[in-house]
Amino acid sequence: MLKKVIHFFDKLEDKMRGKLSHLPFLYAFFGGIGVVLFWRGVWHLADDVNMSSIISLIIGSIILLITGVFVSVFVGNRLIISGLKGEKKIVEKTEEEIINEESQIDKLQKTINKVEKKLENIVSEIQEKK
Fold this sequence. Notes:
Number of strands: 0
Number of helices: 6
Radius of gyration: 23 Å
Strand content: under 5%
Largest sheet: none
Number of domains: 3
Distance between the termini: 53 Å
Order of helices and strands: HHHHHH
Shape: extended
């Protein structure tokens, strides 16, 4: 039963992400609503258990540091990488640029696969000689 529910929401997410990716402002709007409602729930839960502000700050910081998402939550890995590379923001890229990047990634993946096969052949040849 749980697998069916997870599968349903996984498929729904894929469909929605596919459709909304062509409408970045609408995507951001719905995403923003979801984030605000989620954090509103967290906020009210902390209030319900009478958690003080300083305790909330400490526990939240510890959780973010332990899980390794502190920087990505506040800045974002993609943002850092694109800034270091001097890239455009994803919303500033044209569809042609994105397709070009995807084809480059596909070519790199094919090259990596070829190198892996060659390495496997070399390793098997070395093992046969022993």
